[in-house]
Fold:
Amino acid sequence: MVEETSPKVVVVMPAYNAAQTLAKTCHAIPEGSCDAVLLVDDASSDDTADVARDLNLEVIEHPKNLGYGANQKTCYTHALAMGAEIVVMLHPDYQYDPRIIPDLVEPIRGGEADVVLASRMLGDPIAGGMPAYKYIFNKTLTWIENKALGTSFSEFHTGYRAFSSRALESVNYKSNSNDFVFDNEIIVQCLDAGLRFKEIPVRTRYAEDSSSVSFLTSVKYGLECSGLC
Structure:
């Protein structure tokens, strides 16, 4: 367990059909790096929720599929209700490396940042299996967003990030999209609120059992992100 004097850390997992990868994701979380793991199941068609309960996770099930953004809203709202002082969002598909959770948490714990992003672009995502079109799309869209917002992020589109409770309570994330563009909307909200950011590198794994967004969905996402700038 984390020492009592440390901020309470809750890892949240927005899940959809993650039964095959959930256990190995959880087993890779470093012992003592968090106080609780919350999984929100967005009406999966597999047994994600049952696997989560077998792993002794805190589980919430949406009665119907509400979308990735809506899942995050439930994750953050419930984590704050659990008394979380630091919230780490980790996808349960084993694409992002869970072992760096302590590195994500430390800048917040040390008072250096309010939001920490685990950037694939600070590592070698192509070596990790990222499709070339996704790499190019990510780099291009990040460049556009940096130019429009006056920022210098290496990546806007990581799904692996940590927030202080202050950061989440400073923005109206519940007003955001229920879809994938939520990820960008909350970053823009945190920038507008004057919150401090830090990026750290993360290794990724792209495989058949990890989640994948289709090309058309990626295009729709890109257009929605551009509309935020």
Notes: The mean pLDDT is 91. The longest strand covers residues 9-15.
